[in-house]
Design a protein that fits this description.
Strand 1 and strand 2 form a beta hairpin. The chain is α+β, with helices and mostly antiparallel strands. The chain has nine helices and eleven strands. The chain is elongated and about 60 Å long. It folds into two domains: 120 residues, no CATH class; 117 residues, no CATH class. Helix 3 packs across helix 4 and helix 5 packs across helix 6. It has a four-stranded mixed β-sheet. Strands 5-6-7-11 form a four-stranded antiparallel β-sheet, with helices on one face. Strands 8-10-9 form a three-stranded antiparallel β-sheet.
Length: 255
């Protein structure tokens, strides 16, 4: 922060993204802001907001962003981050869409696409839905987890395992799971807004990314579960059989 504030870019018009985690639940948190003097605003945020540990700032190398540009980018960033559902938004009052003439809006949309690519490259896919790949995947790649109390669908991705909206499991954790990683993972899902308790069920109202298939299965089952054998495709094969066994077959051994 100190180094950035000494740079001339800190005096420019810009948009910034503050990210961090909830101390209790571990849920990812995000604040989006903009300013005509982005360095000064970040200094203020450093004193008044304590949840964040990363600040990502977008400015123009040619210094041609205006306050209208960044007002629109702030509004659109909040819309897209909310739709993506990866982060819990810290913005108390949603920014209003500023009046933007079509040529300027087209310019802003192009800038936004660039910002999104750069953020993702840095490891912060703020605007990408956790199940974006689902729409492009073959239905055969969809996995199901069903028990008398659980009915869930999910997708195995490079980032982890995505539990899809409308999946559900029992609301009450078994005694041995209380206070464990399973309990904390469930708390994160609820804190993010992707899941909620509805009667005797935990229901996912939005797609939600887990770090592993077992983390997803355990959260749904309300007890420790092996996701590699719990999640199954429509042809009956488990996640283990689809993704692990092929890599264990040595050349010459056949399929």
């Amino acid at each position: 922060m100190d180094d950035f504030l000494t740079m001339p870019e800190a005096l420019q018009v810009g948009i910034y993204f503050l990210t961090g985690e909830d101390d209790v639940s571990g849920a990812l948190r995000l604040y989006v802001g903009q300013s005509g003097n982005v360095g000064k605003r970040l200094s203020q945020q450093n004193e008044t907001k304590d949840f964040w540990n990363r600040a990502l700032v977008a400015i123009s190398l040619t210094n041609n962003l205006t306050t209208t540009h960044v007002a629109y980018l702030e509004w659109w960033s909040l819309q897209k981050a909310s739709q993506a559902g990866r982060y819990a938004l810290e913005n108390g009052n949603a920014a209003a869409k500023p009046h933007t003439l079509p040529p300027l809006q087209a310019d802003c949309d192009e800038i936004f696409e660039t910002i999104g690519v750069l953020l993702t490259t840095l490891g912060f896919p703020l605007f990408e839905g956790v199940a974006t790949a689902a729409a492009q995947s073959d239905p055969a790649d969809l996995y199901s987890f069903k028990t008398p109390y659980t009915d869930a669908k999910g997708l195995y991705t490079e980032e982890g395992f995505v539990v899809l909206a409308r999946s559900y499991g029992p609301a009450t954790l078994v005694k041995s799971a209380i206070g464990t990683t399973i309990d904390r993972q469930r708390g994160r899902a609820i804190a993010s807004g992707a899941a909620h308790i509805e009667g005797d069920r935990i229901v996912f109202s939005a797609d939600y990314l887990f770090t592993s298939p077992s983390a997803a299965a355990s959260c749904l089952a309300s007890h420790s579960a092996n996701g590699w054998t719990s999640w199954k495709r429509t042809d009956g094969r488990t996640l283990h059989e689809v993704h692990r066994l092929p890599s264990q077959t040595s050349p010459g051994e056949g399929a």
